[in-house]
Amino acid sequence: MHHIRRTAAVGVVLCAALTACSGNSSGGSSGGGDDNKAPGKSVAATPKITVNLTGQQARAGAPVKVTLAEGTLDKVTVTGDKGGSLAGTLSPDGKSWTSARSAAPGTGYTVQAATADGGRAQASFATAAADHVNKVTMSPAKDTAVGVAQPLSIVFDSPVKNKAAVEKQLKVTTSNNTEGSWGWIQDYSGRDRVDWRPKEYWKAGTKVSLQADLNGVDSGTSGGFFVRDYSTRFTIGRNQLTKVNLDTKQLEVYRDGSRIRKIPVSGGTPGGDKRSWRGTAVVIAREGTINMRSETVGLGHAYNKMVNDSMRLTWSGMYAHAAPWNAPFFGKANHSSGCIGMSDGDAGYLFGLTQVGDPFEITGAETKGTVAVGNGYGEWNLSWSAWQARSALG
Description:
- With about 400 residues, the chain is mainly beta.
- It folds into three domains: about 10-125, Immunoglobulin-like, CATH 2.60.40.3780; about 135-235, Immunoglobulin-like, CATH 2.60.40; about 240-380, L,D-transpeptidase catalytic domain-like (Beta Barrel).
- The chain has three helices and 28 strands.
- Strands 1-4-5-9-8 form a five-stranded antiparallel beta sheet, with no helix packed on it. A five-stranded mixed beta sheet has the order 22-21-20-28-23, with no helix packed on it. It has a four-stranded antiparallel beta sheet with strand order 7-6-10-11, with no helix packed on it.
- Strand 6 and strand 7 form a beta hairpin.
- It is elongated, with a radius of gyration of 30 Å.
């Protein structure tokens, strides 16, 4: 099902005859008739150009192409009625010009072409409005400082079939040329998502920016068009890593590679659905004091508590938080409903140190599996080559 009404794919040929001056003369008249030709003047050949998009209901999502019948193009400008213009390139033989970006939906465009011998031609067309618009949600929040494991993440409101076309328009810039790759996954919400993950944890202080030139890109069947561009930027904060060993029931906090605190904890109860996840999880949010209810994570009516200093690690409901009711088990046994619990004092300390994007590396024999790639930011549990393979651009 297409999201822009189709029109006939018929080009339009535009002819405009303007004079080109030679010598020291000035002035001139339109048209190429010799009867009007003044002494000392030559008339430029009439430029005949074809524009691939025509009419007032042209289908968006394709580049604008201008072709010259005879002669050589010197410059082409395509300007939108909502501001801005489409940049493009001339072919080596100067016979055609193609825009780098696609025409956007619901936009009027003016095409102006100039030839090497001074001729001018102009055309106009408009694209049909999008029947369906796709939108995005980007993380982390703009102008924030985040931990060294935070990926750049884009979740799409509607499905993205044309993943390569979308990924091609996503440009990441870092202050230190960090190596990274886009990878496509299914978010825990079930929606399409693409993340840009560094090969290794970020270096502290790295500045990151994204320019997503999506206006005019077609998501594909059922996804709709994008009708705007997006941009964001953020900074990587201090280097902090938290290691959790559920075999020894100990949590260790590292800053710049040095351990600064060791905390006794209690993880998920072995032997069933209350086990914790293992692998690398990333702090999604510092939620503080929240109401935790067991039925929201599929555990029936086992608990309903107000919990302090909560740091979310997965969308499925694993947190690190204060758990004073479990005090007899800290450092001795895993006896929680899946979260990593600790004393009020230790949780308050860790909560005060932690940023969104900090990695928690969790190990332990009695766990229920590795954090899935879309369950929060689980991409760190894939090898670098496996992550690169998720790019739509190969």
